[in-house]
Amino acid sequence: MADPDLTDLHIFLAVAETRSFRRAAVLRGVAASSLSDGIRRLEARLGVRLLNRTTRSVTPTEAGERLLERLVPAMGEIASALDAVNDYRDTPTGTVRLNVPSVVAHKVLPDMVARFLQLHPGITLDIVANDTFIDVLAAGFDAGIRYDESIERDMIAVPIGPRRQRFVAAAAPSYLATHPPVKHPRDLVNHTCICHRFASGKVSTWEFERQGETVRIAPEGPLIATSTELQLAAARAGLGIKYTFEEYLADDLRSGALVPVLSDWWQSFSGPYLYYPSRAYMPAPLRAFIDFIKSERTS
């Protein structure tokens, strides 16, 4: 029996932990068909079926579960052994895999990433934007960026980006000129809204706060989209009211393309955190990125 290829073992690990070829493909940034090919090669070399596949689910067989139990710590040891070489270099090399929300990828990281990579030309940042709550470590990422309510308590969290953010509501002047005034969040039931759908399929609920009172609204309107660009274009065209991260609307508010709505009800919350597991040994590229984030906050 030929020895299994290390890449195929990584593929098996990704698919077995996510229980999905599609999700594993998205997380690895490859086509699902290439993962299927890798699993077939691995099963052929080992002579056993490792995954049960149906049109609805992917689950490890008994043999697959046994391999998974041994493979997770073994892959960790391999990564640690390879990373130890970094201690003998003047600058760390390797890859840092990050799972981050879309707003962080678009509005927080761009300048920061450019500065970091200029300082560390030997490091590759592999960043996946994902608004679904997942176990980023089980999915093969070194660290994640999330907001504090969705960070596991056993993680170490480092502030990254703005420390306060807020959701803001706005609409085009043409829309507001032809619709009744919006004085309270409950007035939105008489208005059309531009809605956001998460990758999970859930449509976001709008939450407003003022002087200790919280009001939640299930928005309805002519557009439901996962694409923020589509939502903003619809708002500019006067199709309805949009409620989202202030960073997405800032340029349009400055230019007057959109006008604030319910500004005394906008919800404020703490900014994002980079989080990673508490462990004594950390890959040198990740350590360099964390040190950079901390230095950015003190500079």
CATH fold name of the largest domain, please? Answer: D-Maltodextrin-Binding Protein, domain 2
Radius of gyration: 23 Å
Number of continuous helical runs: 10
CATH homolog superfamily of the largest domain: Periplasmic binding protein-like II
CATH level-two architecture of the largest domain = 3-Layer(aba) Sandwich
Helix content: 25-40%
Give the rounded overall mean pLDDT: 89
Largest sheet: 6 strands, mixed
N-to-C order of helices and strands: HHHEEHEHHEEEEHEEEEHEHEEEH
Tally of extended strands? 15
Tertiary shape: globular
- Unreliable stretches (pLDDT < 50, length at least 5) are none
Counted up, domains total 3
Describe the structure.
- The protein has 10 helices and 15 strands.
- It has 299 residues and is an alpha/beta fold.
- The chain folds into 3 domains: 6-83, Winged helix-like DNA-binding domain superfamily/Winged helix DNA-binding domain (Arc Repressor Mutant, subunit A, Orthogonal Bundle); 89-163 and 271-298, D-Maltodextrin-Binding Protein, domain 2 (3-Layer(aba) Sandwich), CATH 3.40.190.10; 164-269, Periplasmic binding protein-like II (D-Maltodextrin-Binding Protein, domain 2, 3-Layer(aba) Sandwich).
- Strands 7, 8, 11, 12, 13 and 14 form a 6-stranded mixed sheet that branches. It has a 5-stranded mixed sheet with strand order 4-3-5-15-6, with helices on both faces. A two-stranded antiparallel sheet has the order 1-2.
- It is globular and about 70 Å long.
Summarize this, please?
With 299 residues, the protein is α/β, with parallel strands linked by helices.
